[in-house]
Design brief:
It is built from eight helices and 16 strands. The protein is an alpha/beta fold. β10, α5 and β11 (206-209) form a beta-alpha-beta unit. α1 (44-52) crosses α8 (318-329) and α3 crosses α4 (169-181). Bound molecules: NADP nicotinamide-adenine-dinucleotide phosphate. The site of NADP nicotinamide-adenine-dinucleotide phosphate has 31 residues, from α1, α3, α4 and β10.
């Protein structure tokens, strides 16, 4: 009997090019799910891997950390999914678990049923930004997330939080997660002014132009007693170029920064506690194993919205290389996706 095959979109070497390769179709092991990809979202990590060799052990390599599709098969011990289910998922870093391919195999915990009201492309745009924002808030800043059932952690609960880079995928996710976690807190954010109305619709109290010369003073004056914010979520490594942004932290507060890992070296002033966050940390105990299922629930209930506009860069694997070029050049309030 002929072996079943599937195609992979492999980056041949650092910087590319890509090539389409046929491999034996992968099978899920215990507690794993194999997914036939219908849509893939592109992330800054993909181009950082491609052009800098970031986190790549050897070439050729398969990239891609976000996607949505149809369950192909399930491994032993998987009870929540069956072949044919429409799902969206976080994907992995090795060639078996990355999303730039026809069939990928991921841990069951990374997968959730796709809400009916979302297209595959919209669903694909969500996982890593939600997971990373969740990790910065829940794992780094120790703010309990009410939608992770056993997810209570302890720590000072902030009355105000500044999200740096609110219009980024991670930032727009962070605003929504913070609003769910801290219903009465002031959630301030920086972005270009064109995005402020959208970011307040997601739950921000107010947006600030990150290029304003009076940014720090403007942010402080919008906090209770103009003392400054209790905590910062840095979604876009703002602290590297805006070194005075830490002056927005209240001298009386915990002075904590949850910084999304970006590969950029950032120095914070003495007395400021900086914790770097990675998307997968959100799955850590106690509540994290439910993180993706919780996202599906929030979406179905309308309590979590698409953080950013979803823009297609084309269909078939060949659109990925072009899309990564666009992403590397810089995008604004947009998630790029490819239909497989
Ligand atoms: N550690 C992890 O697990 C993990 C996971 C995902 C992402 N990341 C990292 O997180 C970062 C964000 O990823 P992403 O996908 O959310 O990015 P993205 O959506 O591609 O980011 C683009 C946005 O960043 C905003 N921006 C850039 N510099 C800014 C600044 N100084 N102040 C305010 N806004 C600024 C831009 O805002 P305007 O257009 O409004 O100016 C733009 O909307 C990247 O470095 C990525 O590598 C890490």
């Amino acid at each position: 009997m002929a072996t079943a095959t599937a195609t992979q979109y492999q980056a041949v070497q650092k910087g590319g090019p890509f090539t389409v390769v046929s491999i034996p179709k992968p099978c899920p092991g215990p507690n794993e799910v194999s997914i036939r990809l219908k849509a893939i979202a592109l992330n800054p990590l993909d181009w950082k891997k491609l052009y800098f060799g970031f986190m790549i052990e050897s070439w050729p390599a398969v990239l891609g950390i976000d996607g949505a599709g149809i369950v192909e098969d399930v491994g032993q011990g998987v009870n929540n999914f069956k072949a044919g289910d429409e799902v969206f998922s976080l994907f992995g870093h090795d060639s078996r678990a990355s999303s730039f391919q026809e069939v990928s195999v991921v841990p069951e915990m990374f997968v959730a049923k796709k809400p009916r009201n979302l297209s595959f492309e919209e669903a694909a745009s969500l996982p890593i930004c939600y997971c990373t924002a969740g990790a910065a808030i829940y794992s780094a800043l120790k703010i309990p997330l009410p939608f992770l059932p056993d997810g209570a952690t302890t720590g000072p609960q902030p009355k105000s939080v500044l999200v740096l880079g609110g219009s980024s995928g991670v930032g727009a996710a962070a605003i929504q997660i913070l609003r769910l976690a801290l219903p009465t807190a002031a959630i301030l954010t920086t972005s270009s002014p064109q995005h402020h109305a959208h970011l307040t619709s997601l739950g921000a109290s107010r947006g600030f132009d990150q290029k304003s010369p009076s940014l720090v003073a403007d942010i402080k004056s919008a906090t209770p007693d103009a003392k400054g914010v209790d905590m910062i979520v840095d979604a876009v490594a703002s602290g590297a170029s805006q070194t005075n942004i830490y002056d927005t932290l209240s001298a009386d507060g915990p002075k904590e920064v949850g910084e999304v890992f970006s590969g950029t070296q950032i120095q914070v002033p003495e007395g400021v506690k900086r914790t770097v966050a990675f998307g997968r940390q959100v799955f850590e105990p106690p509540g994290g194993k439910n993180a993706m299922t919780a996202l599906a629930g929030l979406l179905s209930e309308g309590r979590y919205k698409l953080p950013n506009r979803v823009q297609s860069v084309g269909s078939r694997f060949e659109a990925i290389a072009k899309g990564l070029e666009v992403l590397k050049g810089g995008i604004s309030g947009t998630k790029l996706v490819v239909t497989v």
